[in-house]
Amino acid sequence: MKDWNGPASKGVESQRRRGRNARSLGPSRSMETRRDFLRQAAGVASCLALPQLLGPETAEAQAGSPAFANPVEIARRDTGVLRAVMQLSDADRNIPGVGKRHLRYFQGWDPAKPDRKSPASADDVSSGPTFRASIGDKVEITFLNKISDSMFQYTIDTAPEDKDKAGYGCDASMPINSVYPVADTFPNCFHGSSTANIHFHGTHTSPDGLGDNVLVQVLPQTKQEDWDKFFEASIFKTGKIPQSWNEMPPHYKTTQEALIKAVDKAAEAQAIAAKRPVPDKLWDTNERQIHQGMWPQYIAGAFPNFLQLPRYQKGGPYVMGQAPGTHWYHAHKHGSTALHILNGLAGAFIIEDNSDDGYDGKLKKFYPGLVENVLVFQQFDPQQNLERSNPNPARTGSGRQLVNGQLSPTISMQPGEVQLWRIVNATVGGNQGSISPAVFAALTAANFQLKQVAQDGVQLSWENYQAQPYLTGKIPGGMNIAAGNRVDLLVKAPNAATVTPVAIASSASPVFFVNVTNTTTVQKGFITDEADYPKLPEFLGNLAAPIAKPRILDFGWEEGRTGPGRNAQNEPPHFMIDGKQFEQNGSVIDQCMREGDTEDWILENHTTVLHPFHIHVNPFQVTRIESPVKDSPPTVYSAENPATDHPIWQDVINIPAGVINTDKTLVPGRVHIRHRFVDFTGTYVLHCHILAHEDRGMMQLVRVVAPADYKKGCQVSIPIHH
Ligand SMILES: [Cu+2]
Q1: Residue 459 Cα, ligand 1 centroid: separation in angstroms?
Q2: How many A from CA of 337 to the centre of ligand 1?
Q3: Which of 480, 510, 541 is where one domain is finished?
Q4: Are 560 and 462 within one domain?
Q5: Looking at the domain assignment, is residue 392 inside a domain?
Q6: pTM of the complete model
Q7: Which terminus of the chain, N or C, has less C-beta within 10 A?
Q8: Ligand 1: centre distance to CA 378 (Å)
Q9: Separation of 427 CA from ligand 1 center, angstroms?
């Protein structure tokens, strides 16, 4: 079933037409000179003062740089509620340095302020709005999927007898000379890109129902009734989060049944007309799940995300609380996460603790008037790289990293000023998507001083704040921010006026500039007294070592492969965990945990490329990293003794690439993590945060089961995640 609002071929045609007519702006000459300059600067030893290198070329390059701007925020209401409408639709948008492309995009607003939409217009690419809430808040978001699926490829469940057939049910964007999906098999291929949902990355909340539920699939519907008004009156206003489908308002339930049945009917008619097998009926799946007391996973048009950000209190109901910090959200539909992220379907989600000892309270007290810059790094491209047999830059994006949708913006600082930078890596990941140590080296070389205060939305302990294991390179690889990672940095400007271009290693052009203007400011250094530093919440203390043996997860690719890229059969790698792709053996729970347990996991990378590991709902402590070195012992970072060490909390960690020795043996990269599965039972996922790897199979279903149901509850009523 390729479509249910219009023929897919029409969408492909119109995309092609747009592609031909699109003007390729290409890099300007000044960009080239900037690149040369940066190549020069990158090769310079750090002892050389950067300002001396700043010739007229840089001044010229910076002349075209826009002033840095934070994304527009949707802030919590005084009533302890973050309330928003999040609308997904599509439009022609301008990618700076590339030109107009037809892209999906998020637009959000607080329904109490309907004139303050973010972005206000679809003209230029942007992230979604920044959500700003506080721990303890309720999050009430009406998610509307209004993508016009006549504009995009649309594929969904295939008939059971065809599921193993290569390419069936997968998107092939170029009907002529198509190389993708080659040997990919559904559901581990790019597909279903007009279907979406929202993942609240970094939240400690329920993965089921209306919570951080990435198993729900919201199909597009361009014309809808006013569901936000309905959700407000019949769900949000009650203050009670429905715990089961039965608790949902009758009008919503009956409308969903009618809409999904209509989708099935259209799919059946199209399959018969095209002499293809009739695909599985979505409503059959929904109905089965509802009868089992579960949530149906296929939803049409509108979905009310309703979740709680738990506030930890000693002796209270939660074992862990929501960590206050820089989190984010993004679309998380298997088969489309990479493409959605390349359309910019992501934004920052800042969760504050403004209490006296809290993260935000302490920082704002020490730095009155602290300037906070939110830097959402993104790449924009309407197509998947793997879908292109003959990459044509005129049809695609540049792959350049933009900050808040801006090309090389200029951040302004005063001499000696300290700012808080909240960095979110919302790229698709991989070599082009990492924010490399070169960014931070460029700043320190120009006499900026940096202190990391949080990783992945969890503040560093006082000891780690002092030791700075990432910025000092104590952790192998240093400050290499993978897709999905967040870093909070206190940045102190040098005392003299400068202009500093800051580049990513993989792209020599600056991702941003910092302009230190020659006006005076109050001089204030970094926090040196522990009493001034945010108090580490009790629930973020070190986890005690569990008694049970660690679980080992094996990140790999198909048998016989020794490197990335296409093999002799022109097939790209198949990405696997524990020797299989996602749902390769049907819908099974790959990792089942007992609620309340603490576990050690060893993540092994048997490929020769990095894989950033991510698991939803609970952060973990990183206790050991082994980076293999060819023909030598690995470089090891160890924080394994909870009594004396201070392992950092994260929710995304790069598993170092494996290395092949001269004797052809592969030494895997290894990361040891310790985590506990508390407060929330339910089914969710772990996956590689290089999202094209996730879409193409590097994901597992996980479930946390109440002690009384363990293990019998592990393999019952499993949602499928196509
Ligand atoms: Cu990966």
Answers
A1: 26
A2: 13
A3: 541
A4: no
A5: yes
A6: 0.89
A7: N
A8: 18
A9: 13
**Cis? peptide before 296, omega within 30° of 0:** no
Describe the chain by its helix, strand, coil percentages, rounded to 5: 20, 30, 50
What is the CATH classification number for the domain harbouring 574? Answer: 2.60.40.420
CA of 572 relative to ligand 1 center, distance in Å: 13
Distance (angstroms) between ligand 1 centre and the Cα of 467 equals: 30
Range of the domain at 331: 76-153+195-205+309-541
97 and 82 belong to one structural domain: yes
CA of 687 to the centre of ligand 1 (A): 8
Give tens-digit pLDDT for 27-61. 332 333 333 333 333 333 222 223 333 333 344 34
pLDDT tens, position by position, 477-505: 899 999 999 999 999 999 888 888 888 76
Nearest in space to 401 (alpha carbons), one of 507, 263, 291: 507
Query: Is residue 403 domain-resident?
Result: yes
Give the span between the Cα atoms of 418 and 494, in whole angstroms.
Answer: 10
Q: Above pLDDT 90, what percent of the chain?
A: 70
CA of 709 to the centre of ligand 1 (A): 33
Pairing of strands 591-594, 99-109: unpaired
The residue with greater pLDDT, 264 or 721, is 264
Q: What is the pLDDT of residues 327-362, one digit of tens each?
A: 999 999 999 999 999 999 999 999 999 999 999 999
**Nearest alpha-carbon partner for 432 in 331, 507, 539:** 507
CA distances from 664 to 562, 574, 631, 632, 707 (A): 9, 21, 10, 13, 45
Instruction: Using alpha carbons, select from 267, 379, 340 the residue that is nearest to residue 2.
Output: 267
Residue 141's CB is within 10 A of a number of other CB atoms, namely 25
| pLDDT, position 400 | 86
The alpha carbon of 39 and the centre of ligand 1 are apart by a number of angstroms equal to 29
Please state, rounded to an integer, the average pLDDT across all residues of the chain.
86
Residue 12 alpha carbon to ligand 1 centre in Å: 29
Q: Taking ligand 1, which is a single-atom ion, which protein residues have CB atoms under 5 Å away?
A: 611, 688, 690, 693
Number of domains in the chain: 2
Which pLDDT does position 21 carry in this prediction? Answer: 27
Q: Which tokens belong to 435? A: 């924010």
Matching residue, tokens 């939660």: 318
How many Å lie between the centroid of ligand 1 and the Cα of residue 379? 18
Do residue 420 and residue 507 come from a single domain? yes
Residues 422 and 367 in one domain: yes
Q: How far is the CA of 518 from the centre of ligand 1 (A)?
A: 45
Domain end marker among 541, 567, 591: 541
Residue 272 belongs to what H/E stretch? helix 250-273
In the reported structure, the alpha carbon of residue 425 is separated from the centroid of ligand 1 by a whole-number distance in angstroms of: 15
Count, residues in the chain? 722
